[in-house]
Amino acid sequence: MYIEMTDNTGKVSDDMQQDTIKLLNFAASFIHLPEHKEMAITYVLNDEIQKINQDYRGKDTPTDVVSLEYEPETISFDADFDMPEALQAELEEFDSFIGELFISIEKAQEQADNYAHSYEREMGFLAVHGFLHINGYDHMIEEEEKVMFALQEEILTAYGLTR
Description:
Layout: E1 2-7, H1 14-30, E2 38-44, H2 46-57, E3 65-69, H3 85-94, E4 97-104, H4 105-115, H5 119-134, H6 142-159
Parallel strand pairs: 1-2, 2-4
Antiparallel strand pairs: 3-4
């Protein structure tokens, strides 16, 4: 999986970014995501994530991670349409982008302190949590929450990023 990283804070080390890429590629293989998929992560401060949270979720408060799942429009063709290979390749490439995450490094540090675990663990947790959201997992109802939270913990533990 290709992951585009942007650090709007200037405070996230190259090592942290590379560790996040490795963790999310592990998570992608864990859920059997096709290798050609792509996503983006942008590290931000609380003021920027508050604006994003307001714009996309209608909540005027900083949060830890905002996940924007990309849902391509369905394109339909007549049953007798013989799609050229070049067009098929373009459609597959168009369908490769799954979404983007915005992670507040300030909230990550605050939560790491509150939960008494490392900043690295919290950043990994937020990345996996957001990654699962852009892959269709949610926690709005209790049954979905159990599935998503168990899966994210299973991924983090299998990767070796424990509390």
